Known about the structure:
Layout: E1 3-7, E2 16-20, E3 32-37, H1 41-52, E4 57-59
Parallel strand pairs: 2-4
Antiparallel strand pairs: 1-2, 1-3
Amino acid sequence: MPNFYLNSQAxxxxxHEVHKENCTFLPLIKNRILLGDFNFCSDAxxxxxxxxxxxxxxxxxxxxxxxxxx
Length: 70
């Protein structure tokens, strides 16, 4: 199971992205929050919503496309 990370810095539209550990677009270390290891990006997003009270979350288009909301 891959580790997933939350980008603590919101994008211009207010979304926070969730990335897999091997993503080319993984945020800088100072902007990463480890969510844990999951089989599915949707599980990582659920944990991020509950733990960090962030409502605008999306999966990275490149590494978590199944959860990308565009």
